[in-house]
Amino acid sequence: MSPVRRTVPVAAAAGALVLGVLMPLGLQGTAQAAATPNGGDVIANLFQWNWNSVATECTDVLGPKGYGAVQVAPPQESISVAGHPWWDVYQPVSYNLNSRMGTDAQFRAMVAACHDAGVKVYADAVINHMAGTNQSSSTSYGGSSFNAAGYGYPAVPYSRADFHGSPPCPNSNLSINDWNSVAQVQECQLLNLSDLDTESDDVRGKIAGYLNTLIGAGVDGFRIDAAKHIAQADTAAILSRLNDTRWGGRPYVYQEIFPGSGGQLAPAAFEGNGSVLEFTYAYKLRDQFNGNIANLKTFGQSWGLEPSDKSAVMVTNHDLERDKTTLTYADGAKYELAHVFELAWGYGTPQVYAGYRFNNRDDSPPADANGYVTATNCANNTWTCTDRDQGIANMVGWHNATKGQNVANWWDNGNNAIAFSRGSKGWVAINNSSSALTRTFTTGLAAGTYCDVIHGDVNGSNCTGPTVSVDGSGRATVTVDAGDAVALYTATTGTAGPSPSSSPSGSSSPSPSSSPSPSSSPTNPSGTVTQTFNENKTTVTGQNVYLVGSITQLGNWDPKAAVALSPAGYPVWSGSVQLPANTAFEYKYIVKDAAGNVTWESGANHSANSGATGGTLNDSWGGTGNGGGTGQVAVNFSENKTTVVGQNVYLVGSTAQLGSWDPARALPMSATSYPNWKLSLTMPASAAFEYKYIVKDGSGNVTWESGANRSYTTGASGAVTLTDSWK
Q1: Mean pLDDT (whole number) for 153-178
Q2: What is the 3-state secondary structure (H, E, C) of 493-541?
Q3: Based on the number of CB atoms within 10 Å of its own CB, is 541 exposed (0-12), middle (13-18) or buried (19 or more)?
Q4: What are φ and ψ of residue 209, in 5° steps?
């Protein structure tokens, strides 16, 4: 986004059902020369991830899930500003490739790793300007000397003659006073940033040289930052000097053009140089998910969007989430559902944005004391790894499989529930309302059993989540939970996978038990229920906790098909799985680290029955579960609180397990016994803690109950119920 928005410090639900099968899109081989692009077009925008983390993500997530490309931070050396705000990478001091994201060598290794995974690399290219003339810092992340106030950048080299002055800027102070004036927008300084004289042949040559260096490293395309502030003829002249990419063809170009101006400054006026970032798409998507998604039936160019083949579409990006003008990670289910719709609808080149949590607009990404960005850890609730979300990541495969198919079989309830197919290749339902939806849909799919890829992965012919049967008329009866989705594509071969006859083999992977084979699981259970699992497990950086068990939905004891749990209430890891009703099953928890090593918890298997309504299972690593583990007590919280639509009750308290008084880490309570909100946790024995209840609404507003903190000390064992009323 435009750096105009980067230098001003600012203080700081719904559902869908998707059915489908994830098709393996990863590539064989590790030699870059043998790698080929996977053919996908979805861009994962990994905002300010360091190079090593991007490389790992390409290998472990983006390639296997079918992402076509990754957008990375500006690679060039930049100024280092006190406090290390995120925007300092948008103020270059040279075109060297040593930055706060990593070294030149790490950048090149990252590109090679992404190519090996079949993923293209698009670099954020800052070519309109250099560091701001108002910056007093003389420190850079790569060690090059410069003098921003004096327009001196010897490492390029650039001097005062290489920048716009007055004239051609009509204002003596070089500021932009009229944002509809072509001369001011393209010849003056954007918030004191040294504006390059891109009419100069020498400057054009140096910019093209930098971009060709990136192409030589394997970069496949560019997001051109602040493209609205560069004359179209200047951009065209620079692009004409670029080499073809390593994988052949011209680099893919998409330009940052904030809407709001007409004529030569309108987004359409820049389409001759490539695609444009479609801000209006993001704004309109926000409006509908905060209003009525049934309106999306006509979503497209008639809404004021640029043509599909010229649009790089998004739910949000780094500027917009800070402006709070779009949906963001703080919007929870709506944010995820908007990504599901974006990937299903098929308009433009879609992006999935993954950044980090922040309190204040200028906050640095997680970094060391010198500002160098540290490794992305998706388990510590600091980074927002949207690209990894099971439903969103699997929708990338759905998107790829339905490419070229028209929207068909549209259904809506006139409000906040919709469903449609893409020809006969895929079908999706999205429920952006506060109540579950059950009906028989016309899917357009061939008869068969399909894996709901929003809630499960495909493992061979098996699905780790719920399945949906489509009859010979293409109809299916489906329940879409509130704030959820269901998506289907490509039929599986059966309703359930074969049961293992013995425990997992291999001396390097300990058996989950001496006899994990299921003995009574029905092959065709009637109906499904929601089973929630809570596991108390302390981990170290790079480790994540998973659930695996004796039935298909729990991976059939296969660690590769284990269900990932969320650390939102760390050290309690939680997750909900749709299981067949009235089914006996066994299960265990495992830990996986970044290298793929698997550690099984010790002891006997946990055992349970899903029953007619499901429920919650509270366990502790190595314990027997539900309060029976050594040194653990089952604590059942019950809070009586009347709420209105859109409000939910949460528990927060003095320990890490209870969120350390942080509302963002508060634990959601169940409203199944409304107005009594309930939550069951496995907590340490003989431990004192304080707690309170809070209410959150759909806008993220938090209301604390009044009065003193509640307090309790657990006993040595057993279970206890704490019954409270809002005060």
Answers
A1: 97
A2: CCCCCCCCCCCCCCCCCCCCCCCCCCCCCCCCCCCEEEEEEEEECCCCC
A3: exposed
A4: -65, -40
Q: Residue 319 is which amino acid? A: D
Q: Is 722 exposed, middle or buried (0-12, 13-18, 19+ CB in 10 A)?
A: middle
| Catalytic status, residue 331 | no
HSE-CB for 663 with a 13 A CA cutoff? 15
Do 291 and 214 lie in one domain? The reply is: yes
Banded model confidence at residue 408, pLDDT cuts 50, 70, 90? very high
Classify residue 449: in a domain, yes or no: no
Q: Is residue 424 assigned to a domain?
A: no
Tokens of 235: 């951009």
CA 492/CA 459 separation, integer angstroms: 10
When pLDDT is cut at 50, 70 and 90, the band that residue 626 belongs to is very low
Specify whether 195 is catalytic: no
In the prediction, which pLDDT does 263 show?
95
pLDDT (0 to 100) of residue 623: 60
With contact defined as beta carbons under 8 Å apart, do 52 and 102 qualify? Answer: yes
The reply to whether 574 and 715 lie within a common domain is no
Residue pair 585/516 in contact (Cβ under 8 Å)? The answer is: no
Whether this model's pTM surpasses 0.85: no
Residue 472 lies in a domain: no
Catalytic member of 41, 124, 220, 225: 225
Buried-exposed string 644-654: b where 16+ CB fall within 10 A, e elsewhere:
eeeebbbbbbb
- Indicate whether 639 and 659 sit together in one domain: yes
Position 391 pLDDT exceeds 80: yes
- With a CB cutoff of 8 Å and minimum separation 6, the contacts of 207 are 127, 196, 198, 238
Token representation of residue 130: 């250099």
Candidates 191, 184, 183, 187; CA nearest to 165 is 187
Residues 135-144: pLDDT tens digits? Answer: 999 999 999 9
The residue with tokens 């959820």 is 484
* Catalytic-labelled residue, pool 88, 256, 484, 724: 256
Q: Looking at residues 248-254, what average pLDDT do you find?
A: 95
Contact 417, 480 (CB under 8 A): yes
Range of the domain at 591: 528-620
Residue 26: CB atoms within 10 A of its CB come to 16
Shared domain check, 702 and 565: no
Q: Which helix (H) or strand (E) holds 75?
A: none
The total domain count for the chain is 3
Predicted local distance difference test score (pLDDT) of residue 24: 27
CATH number at residue 230: 3.20.20.80
Q: Are residues 262 and 351 in the same domain?
A: yes
Q: Which residue has 């993001």 as its token pair? A: 282
Matching residue, tokens 């060709």? 212
